Each structure stands twice: as structure tokens, then as C-alpha cells.
Amino acid sequence: MTARDLDDRAASRSVRKPTMADVAKYAGVSLKTVSRVVNQEPHVRAPLQERVQAAISALGYRRNEAAARLARGAAMLTLGLVMENISNEFYSRLAAAVESAAAGHEALVVFGSYEESADKERMLIESMYARGVDSLIVVPSAADHAWLAEHASLTAVFVDRVPPGLDSADVVLLDDVWGGRAATEHLLAHGHRRIALISDDGAVSSVRDRAAGYRAALRAAGVAADEAMVVRGVFDPWRVAYEVGRLLDLPDPPTAFFATNNRAAIGILQALRERPERPAYVGFDDFALADVFSPGVTVVRYDVTRLARGAVDLLLNPAPGPRRVRVPVELIARGSGELPPR
Amino acid sequence: MTARDLDDRAASRSVRKPTMADVAKYAGVSLKTVSRVVNQEPHVRAPLQERVQAAISALGYRRNEAAARLARGAAMLTLGLVMENISNEFYSRLAAAVESAAAGHEALVVFGSYEESADKERMLIESMYARGVDSLIVVPSAADHAWLAEHASLTAVFVDRVPPGLDSADVVLLDDVWGGRAATEHLLAHGHRRIALISDDGAVSSVRDRAAGYRAALRAAGVAADEAMVVRGVFDPWRVAYEVGRLLDLPDPPTAFFATNNRAAIGILQALRERPERPAYVGFDDFALADVFSPGVTVVRYDVTRLARGAVDLLLNPAPGPRRVRVPVELIARGSGELPPR
Predict the structure, then answer these.
(1) CB A307 within 8 A of CB A173
(2) In CATH, what number is assigned to the domain containing residue B141?
(3) How far is B136 from chain A (nearest CA, A)?
(4) Residue-wise pLDDT tens digits, B284-337
């Protein structure tokens, strides 16, 4: 090797990283030998090993860890979780639970939040699919999902709601009708007859089922349903707080509330901060701090890890036919649901 | 066309969807003509148009909307957001804010949560990168991030913490030192001298900076720092509640607490439910319901949308040199930080 060669090498070193081939050439050994030394395989004779190590030092060669890991990253099973609204605690709990369930199968999870927009839901699913994520867990919007059937290689499992237009879909649901009924019966058992219902999107199956449970309990108790006591389509706690105030200002106000989700229960808490009345209320979905208030918030609760594990199990064990898994719910009395009527 | 041909066609229709080519053959026109009719292009003569429409009806042809949309899905700019723990409200708020900031640029966002595991952080980033997500917003773990520099085509911006080992990184930070100092000065101004610090991962720059602000305020007030008043490495509110109880049981207990994150503040709330003492406390990070408790929780708060928008702006406007953006924080007095010493 001439001085000129070395200068050239030094110059080229400054513009690109040395490769294994450079090391082999410099050391005068085969590429296979360099690979063996770099990967610490046995059966390389000591003098050869030393020559390769000297070349590695001289050239400043570094094994391309990044490329090796990147290949592994691409190969890892990645599940997509598509949710309605990540700022709602239900979804952040679900995301953490899916993450944990997937980790048990050495799978990674990427999440997407469509912020109550069915168009964005579809774009998210298609973007994930186009990027090689073909196993999806979806909390579906109320829009038609028939288009999903056209992606033959996509495996999707649905959580919390039945996707409209996809009769063949596997779905993991809560026992919503039972929960709505149990919440309402609990309030009836504590003497309430004017029980208001606060709910969000009535086009979504879980919300509809919780309301159906509420109506069934009233019917069974011989209490006539009063549409003036039913509030639909409120998502934001502040809107809920406004509606609660409005109902309490009626000439014949409710003495109790059934909130069909955590945001509605939080809205009730916010409304009552400003009001003298102490109506009873039961929420659907547990939430952080529900037990720290005084009185504690009585809720219909469930184990979100069962929702997550159910979905991951269905996803990783494909089988024909629509499968439905129902996760049980339970009523946890903490005080707010046991207050008497005025 | 014979009856046999039609039967064959009917049979084949049941096993696969008709294509544009089938429509062209059935109508006896060119594929180009079918394409023009399907895509509602002008300049197709009426009789031809009618023949194509008749063939479309007869065969039950449907345009492959899915394929067209899928191509768009792959083309859409998708940002990756990699976070420490999605079940922490800070991250779900950040995720929603990044989602909203990205929507302003017609970009989609996929999230990943590494659940406090630096290995999983790296796998998530590499999996996203391998799937074509090359614009990343990362809330980094305390591990070395030098490996990221090897992915030349990856653009990453960091949020909330400085990534160790990546001096050239663009970072959007909160004014953590100022916030820690303001919280502590507030408690000092209300007469407290025994002020405990509850914090999580001390290896993370934001936590370190908040603690530095706490120490600076004590020093400026001539109050000697007492290591017995400092709790580090507690993440879970239940662990925090235990530590708060332990400190309150000391012979010379704290009369006030500074919680360096939302989980620590929630842990204090939980601990105080079971205790007779009414120590003052200030939290860092606002959280849902912080204003509904009585007294309300005094916090150091900031606009999470500014963190998100700052990160998206840096990401979409690449420029040389490490850029640091500081988002201001403010102290919101709600009652818990204004309680007097016993």
C-alpha cells in the first residue's frame, strides 16, 4: 500500500463510513473472516483475529447496529389501535391495556385517535394498513364500515361497539344493557322515580344499549319514561354541567342521574360544585379520583384489561364466523348513588 | 354471447368481484371508455355511456374506492408520537394536542407508548421508521439516544425533556426551573418552612429542573434543604400516597408538599383522604377535576397545545442547529397551596 493509497483512504473515510469490505481489504483477509470476528464467532485463528482488529482500529470501523436493529423493527408484529378520542380517559386506559396485552405476545402497538371524525377514522386505518400494519383493533365510529371488507389481508377486531355494516366482524363488548339496567335499578331501589339519563352519541351501539337498560329498568318498576329527563348528544363535561343545571331548574326536576359515560359523570360533578341540590348519580366507566370525592362516585365498572386481552386474543387467533365476547360489568357503590331523594 | 357464457360469468361473479375489464368486455367497448364513464369524465357519447352503465348494472361492478383511497392513505404525511406512558393524563393531553396541531397541516398521527422501557422506546421508533414514518415527536426516556443520529432520513423533535446523547436535537421544553421555583416560593410565602418534594425519575431533565427550582427557592429564602423531605423515584399514585403518609408520621413532618407531576399530586389527594392533617400542596401539571376538589388543587400549569404546536412547527420546518423552545408555565392558586402551616 502506497502513501497515496493511504491518503485516498483517509479522504474517503471523511465522507463515508468504512464498511466490512474496507476492513477485509485493509487486513488482506476474506469478508467472511471479518464478519466472523465482528460477530464474535469462534474458530478464527489468533493471528487473523489480531490483523482484523488492527484494521478495525485503523479505519475506525463500527458495525452497523442501526441497520441490524432496523430490520428487526420492520419484522416485529405491530398492532394498530384506532380510537375515538385519546383525551378521554376510557381510551388512554384501553391503550395502556392493549399495549400490555400485546407485550405479552412480543408485539408493539401504534395508536391513532380519530377525534370523533369518521373520515379521519378511515384515513388512519388506511394509512396504518398502507404502512404494513395489518392487524387492527378498532373502537368504531357510528359510520358504515362495509369498505373495510375490501381489504382482504387486513384483520380487524372491534372493541366496545358493533361496527355498522360489517356483520362478519369479531367484537369485544361490555355488558352494556345489564350495566344500564343495574345503575337504574340501584337508583330506583334508593327511592328515586325522577331519574335523568345523560348520554353522548346515540348512534353508537354501546350508548344505545346502556340507554336500553335504563328504559328496561324503569319499565320493570312501572315508572313511566319521561323524555324531558333524557339528554342525548352531549360529549363535553361542560355541556353536561350546563344540561344538569337546566334539568335541576325544571319545575319537577330529577332527583337522580344516570351518566352513560365518564365524561357525563365528570360533568355532573362539575355542575354540583355550583348547586345546593344533592341529587344521587351513578356513572358508567370508572375514572381516576372517582373514589376520592366525598361522597365517592358510584359507578358501573369493568376490567379494561379484559376488553384489551379479549381483542388481542381474537386478533392473534383468527377463526371463521363473527365472534362476540361480552365482558361483565359490576356496580360499585361509593356514596353518590345511595343519596336519598330530597 | 351464449347462455353457457352467461352462466360461466354468473358463476365467476360469485367468486370474484367484476373488474373494469369485465365491464368493457360485456359492453363491447374499450377499457378507456369504461374508465371515463366510471370517473365521470366528459366527452363520452350518450349511447356509449348507456351501454357501459347497462354493463355495470348487469355485472354489479363497483369502482374500487378502497384501492384509490389506500393510495392516498400511503401518501398522507404521518407523524409518529412516541411517549412514555399513555395512561398518564399528561400524555393523553399531549397526544390529543399533537393530533390537533397535525390536523392543521393535514397530517395524521400515530402514537406509541413505551411504558417507561427504553428498549421499547427504541423498538417503537424503529418499527415506525421501518414502516415509513420518518417524522417523529418523542418524549425521550433517560437512556442514551445517540443511536438515533444514525438514521439519516429520520427527522425527530423532542418534547418535555432533553434526549441524552443527542446534542444536535431540537427540543420543546417547559420552563421547569421557573415552575419549580414558583411553586416553592408560593408555599414559602404562605409561611411554610418544612416543604417536602415528591418526584419521579430524577434522570429525566424536566424532573431534575423542577427539583433544581425547588432547591433554588429554598436557598434564596435561607431555608436549609433537608434530604429527609425529598422523595425520588415514585411513579404510581399509590406509592406516593404511602410516602406522604410516611413523611406525615415523622417526628418533624412537612407542613407542605411540592409534587413535581400530576401523579404525585393525585397521590397526595389520595393520602389526605385517610389523614387528619391538612398540609398545603402545589402540583406541577394541571389535571381533570383539579378544580372540583375542595380545596381546589393549586398547580403549575401550561398550555399543552403550545408544546404540541411547537413540536409540529419544528418538525415541519427543518433548520440546522439545535433549536430550543421554552413554553412558559404559570401558577394557578385554587386553595390547596394557600393553606397555612399547622
Answers:
(1) no
(2) 3.40.50.2300
(3) 13
(4) 999 988 999 989 999 999 999 999 999 999 999 888 879 999 999 999 999 999
User: Domain with A28 in it: what CATH number?
Assistant: 1.10.260.40
Of the candidates A64, A76, A111, which has its C-beta nearest B110's C-beta?
Answer: A111
Q: Do B111 and A113 touch (CB under 8 A)?
A: yes
Do A290 and A315 sit in the same domain of this protein?
no
Find out whether A337 and A298 touch, Cβ atoms under 8 Å. Answer: yes
- The greatest distance separating any two alpha carbons of chain B, rounded to the nearest whole angstrom, comes to 102
Tell me how far the alpha carbon of residue B314 is from its chain's centroid.
Answer: 16
Q: What is the pTM of this model?
A: 0.80
Q: With CA atoms as reference, report the closest residue to B133 among B164, B113, B165, B156.
A: B156
For residues B189 and B296, membership in a common domain is answered with yes
Whether the per-residue pLDDT at B14 is higher than 80: the answer is no
Measuring CA to CA, how many Å separate A115 from each of A80, A124, A129, B228? 16, 11, 19, 46
For chain A, the domain total comes to 3
Q: Is A96 helix (H, G, I), strand (E, B) or coil?
A: helix
- The phi and psi torsions of B296 (rounded to 5 degrees) equal -65, 155
**Joined grid coordinates for residue B129:** 421508521
Q: How far apart are CA A315 and CA A308, in angstroms?
A: 11
Q: Is residue B217 part of a domain?
A: yes
Lowest mean pLDDT among B74-83, B118-127, B133-142, B167-176: B74-83
Tell whether B68 is within 8 A of chain A (Cβ). Answer: no
Q: Does B65 touch chain A (CB under 8 A)?
A: yes
**Cα torsion through A199, A203, A209, A215, rounded to 10:** 60
Q: Which domain holds residue B101?
A: 78-173+306-327
Residues 6+ apart with CB under 8 A from B224: B218
Query: Average pLDDT in the B125-149 region?
Result: 91
What is the predicted pLDDT for the residue at A148? 87
Please give the ipTM for the structure prediction: 0.78
Residue B69 has a pLDDT of 52
Asked if residue B297 and residue B180 are part of one domain, the reply reads yes
Closest CB to B112 among A109, A126, A147: A109
Q: Looking at the structure, do residues B209 and B197 belong to the same domain, yes or no? A: yes
Contact B131 A74 (CB under 8 A): yes
Instruction: List the single range of A4-8, A157-161, A324-328 with lowest mean pLDDT.
Output: A4-8
pLDDT tens digits, one per residue of B88-110: 999 999 999 999 999 988 899 99
